[in-house]
């Protein structure tokens, strides 16, 4: 089957079979052009009606747009063709005929709304600028994997069906597991921590997280891809260094390997990897800076979480990726360690893009008795987490790590307006299929 030549590889003088989708047919009377598209690009197929076999011309020009065909013939130079070459067909095979009524126009001449696009992703990803998002997403994942390996960490996969949640009960999706209540995991947090105490010591995971988020927003999904990292003997500052390294690697990979995709998205000019160290502001500095702008109706006080509006105000001020450190302990989860000299302040940090939060992390509480009392303070039953807490009794090193939202990384990198554009088949409050 795949003895075909990709359109991008067809050179003048070659005799080829090219195969793909009918992008467009332009009939100029005596001569007509069929533009054939495959994953590498497009090629022009020329039909000279008077000089060619009638049946060949009929087959080639009678086929509906977006049908899959193959064309065999000679490649010749043709400066007026879009790619500088054209194929003169000897034979045309219609492999899979497309219905003339398409739910979405892959040539992009007719705009489609996001829901229509998501319902017809197969057709939607025939557009260069949509395909480009997913090529870039793949490059981001490749680059972060490589960066994690350079950091000496081991890729792990932890269960997505679990008995307990970690990030607060309300955001859990319950399921039935052989008659017992179970949940879709919100985060690999506890499992990755268990692995820093194992012989692996430094681990990462790229996998789905499930959150029954209450609100429909442009930056929340109910199923997202979390890029998680955790290392033994790291403190929060070392975890931040690793975070910066991995995020920069993602940008650098895209800058180096995705020129065509960036071009398709109209980003070729302005795309660059962040340079220099990401500024690190304490939470106190962050709220002072936000309050000083006077842009919020109510000034923020110690203990307030940062609203979307507050994040935007601060992002405008800072203008690049940055960290917020030293959060109030009361608004960070129980597994985050407090500073030794001040229990009001935690080692928790967030890494921010100017437009939104990308990462949360921190040094973890590795002392058994502190951990157990943290559970109680957060209203969680330590008994239910015995599988986890128990391992803190058998030699658990100090450790730190973070979780990075994969779709948010792609979204902010490419300036996408809606996080759903960075997922093939997003799950949100309305969308369960496809
Ligand atoms: P937010 O406050 O923005 O809703 P969060 O603080 O609840 O996020 P964390 O539990 O800190 O999220 O998760 C770590 C990272 O995972 C976030 O910084 C974000 O990049 C990503 N993330 C979390 N929840 C979602 C979601 N529902 N959809 C997409 N990405 C998410
Ligand atoms: Mn967070």
From TrEMBL:
The protein's role, per its UniProt record: Aspartyl-tRNA synthetase with relaxed tRNA specificity since it is able to aspartylate not only its cognate tRNA(Asp) but also tRNA(Asn). Reaction proceeds in two steps: L-aspartate is first activated by ATP to form Asp-AMP and then transferred to the acceptor end of tRNA(Asp/Asn).
Organism of this sequence: Haloarcula onubensis
Free-text remark on how the cofactor is bound: Binds 3 Mg(2+) cations per subunit. The strongest magnesium site (Mg1) is bound to the beta- and gamma-phosphates of ATP and four water molecules complete its coordination sphere.
Main location: cytoplasm
Gene: aspS
One GO molecular-function entry: aspartate-tRNA(Asn) ligase activity
Region named Aspartate: 189-192
Species classification: Archaea, Methanobacteriati, Methanobacteriota, Stenosarchaea group, Halobacteria
Keyword Nuclease: no
Signal among keywords: no
Alphabetical keyword list: Aminoacyl-tRNA synthetase, ATP-binding, Cytoplasm, Ligase, Magnesium, Metal-binding, Nucleotide-binding, Protein biosynthesis
Protein family per UniProt: Belongs to the class-II aminoacyl-tRNA synthetase family. Type 2 subfamily.
Residues the entry annotates as binding Mg(2+) 2: 357, 360
Record-linked HAMAP family: Asp_tRNA_synth_type2
Listed name of the protein: Aspartate--tRNA(Asp/Asn) ligase
Site-annotated residues for Important for tRNA non-discrimination: 82
Binding site for Mg(2+) 3: 357
Positions bound to ATP: 211-213, 219-221, 357, 405-408
Aminoacyl-transfer RNA synthetases class-II family profile domain location: 99-434
Catalysed reactions, semicolon-separated: tRNA(Asx) + L-aspartate + ATP = L-aspartyl-tRNA(Asx) + AMP + diphosphate
Assembly, per entry: Homodimer.
Binding residues annotated for L-aspartate, in chain numbering: 167, 211, 360, 364
SUPFAM superfamilies to which the protein is assigned, alphabetical: Class II aaRS and biotin synthetases (SSF55681), Nucleic acid-binding proteins (SSF50249)
Listed transmembrane segments: none
Cell compartments where the protein resides: Cytoplasm
CDD domains, alphabetized: AsxRS_core (cd00776), ND_PkAspRS_like_N (cd04316)
Requisite cofactors: Mg(2+)
Enzyme Commission no: 6.1.1.23
Matching InterPro entries: Aa-tRNA-synt_II (IPR004364), aa-tRNA-synth_II (IPR006195), aa-tRNA-synth_II/BPL/LPL (IPR045864), Asp-tRNA_synthase_2 (IPR004523), Asp/Asn-tRNA-synth_IIb (IPR002312), NA-bd_OB-fold (IPR012340), NA-bd_OB_tRNA (IPR004365)
């Amino acid at each position: 089957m795949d003895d075909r030549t990709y359109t991008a590889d067809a050179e003048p003088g070659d005799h080829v079979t090219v195969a793909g989708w009918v992008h467009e047919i332009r009939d100029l009377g005596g001569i007509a052009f069929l533009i054939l598209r495959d994953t590498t690009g497009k090629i022009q197929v020329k039909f000279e009606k008077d000089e060619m076999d009638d049946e060949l011309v009929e087959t080639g020009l009678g086929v509906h747009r977006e049908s899959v065909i193959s064309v065999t013939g000679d490649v010749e130079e043709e400066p007026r063709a879009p790619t500088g070459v054209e194929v003169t067909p000897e034979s045309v095979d219609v492999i899979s005929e497309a219905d003339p009524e398409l739910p979405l126009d892959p040539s992009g001449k007719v705009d489609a709304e996001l829901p229509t696009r998501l319902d017809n992703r197969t057709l939607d990803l025939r557009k260069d600028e949509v395909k480009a998002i997913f090529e870039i997403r793949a490059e981001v994942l490749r680059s972060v994997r490589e960066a994690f390996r350079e950091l000496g960490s081991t890729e792990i996969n932890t269960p997505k069906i679990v008995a307990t949640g970690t990030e607060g009960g309300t955001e859990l999706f319950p399921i039935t597991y052989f008659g017992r209540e179970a949940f879709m995991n919100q985060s690999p947090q506890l499992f990755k921590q268990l692995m820093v105490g194992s012989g692996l010591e430094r681990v990462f995971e790229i996998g789905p997280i499930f959150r029954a988020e209450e609100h429909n927003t442009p930056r929340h999904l109910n199923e997202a891809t979390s890029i998680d990292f955790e290392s033994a003997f790291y403190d929060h500052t070392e975890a931040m260094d690793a975070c910066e390294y991995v995020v920069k690697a993602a940008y650098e990979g895209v800058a180096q390997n995705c020129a065509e995709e960036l071009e398709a998205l109209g980003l070729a000019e302005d795309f660059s990897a962040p340079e220099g160290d990401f500024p690190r502001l304490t939470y106190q500095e962050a709220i002072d800076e936000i309050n000083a702008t006077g842009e919020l109706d109510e000034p923020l006080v110690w203990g307030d979480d940062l609203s979307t509006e507050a994040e935007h105000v601060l992002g405008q001020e800072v203008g690049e990726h940055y960290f917020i450190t030293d959060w109030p302990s009361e608004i960070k989860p129980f597994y985050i360690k407090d500073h030794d000299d001040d229990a009001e302040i935690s080692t928790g940090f967030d890494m921010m893009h100017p437009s939104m939060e990308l990462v949360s992390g921190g040094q973890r509480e590795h002392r058994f008795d502190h951990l157990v009392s943290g559970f109680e303070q957060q209203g969680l039953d330590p008994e239910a987490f015995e599988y986890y807490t128990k391992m803190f009794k058998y030699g658990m090193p100090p450790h730190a790590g973070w979780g990075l939202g994969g779709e948010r990384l792609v979204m902010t990198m490419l300036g996408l307006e809606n996080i759903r554009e960075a997922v093939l088949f997003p799950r949100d409050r309305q969308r369960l299929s496809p």
